[in-house]
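Structure first, sequence second, as always.
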């Protein structure tokens, strides 16, 4: 029987848009959800066939906020069950996926660091890229970079072009 796991609006230890408090909440909320989906893909890979990421609307007295969910269509598949169990823990911080927070909340108003998810993925690909000799400065970057490059080929091409322009 299909079910959905609520993964939250972003990494557990990070600030995120607050319904009724953050200006332009809807835009920030969607940006953070899409960024979190990409960060989870960086860390855990693309969901296997039999599950997929989805946006869950949560209706509240102040309006609607969204969280990221993992929709599991078949719990009989061991690959799906393993992926669901692994991703259910989510991330504590953006940096676990090589990401910078898409929005900064350290002042009076939120500051958008990257306005679109593609730019966030491209930046993460650049952060996690290998050195010219093919080695990674942080061993975990190899997995993050490979997962992102496989899932987001256009962003991987953009990152390679930006890296080449720096050389």
């Amino acid at each position: 029987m299909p079910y959905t796991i609520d993964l939250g609006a972003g990494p557990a230890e990070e600030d995120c848009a607050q319904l009724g408090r953050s200006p332009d909440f809807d835009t920030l909320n969607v940006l953070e959800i899409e960024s979190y989906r990409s960060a989870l893909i960086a860390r855990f890979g693309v969901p296997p066939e039999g599950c997929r990421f989805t946006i869950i609307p949560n209706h509240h007295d102040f309006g609607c906020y969204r969280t990221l969910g993992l929709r599991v269509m078949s719990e009989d598949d061991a690959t799906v069950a393993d992926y669901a169990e692994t991703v259910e823990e989510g991330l504590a911080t953006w940096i676990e996926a090589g990401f910078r927070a898409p929005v900064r909340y350290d002042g009076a108003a939120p500051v958008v660091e990257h306005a679109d998810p593609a730019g966030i993925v491209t930046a993460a690909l650049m952060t996690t890229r290998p050195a010219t000799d093919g080695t990674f400065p942080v061993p975990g970057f190899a997995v993050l970079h490979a997962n992102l490059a496989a899932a987001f080929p256009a962003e991987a091409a953009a990152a390679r072009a930006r890296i080449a322009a720096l050389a």
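Margin note: Helices lie at 25-44, 78-88, 117-127, 141-151, 153-166.
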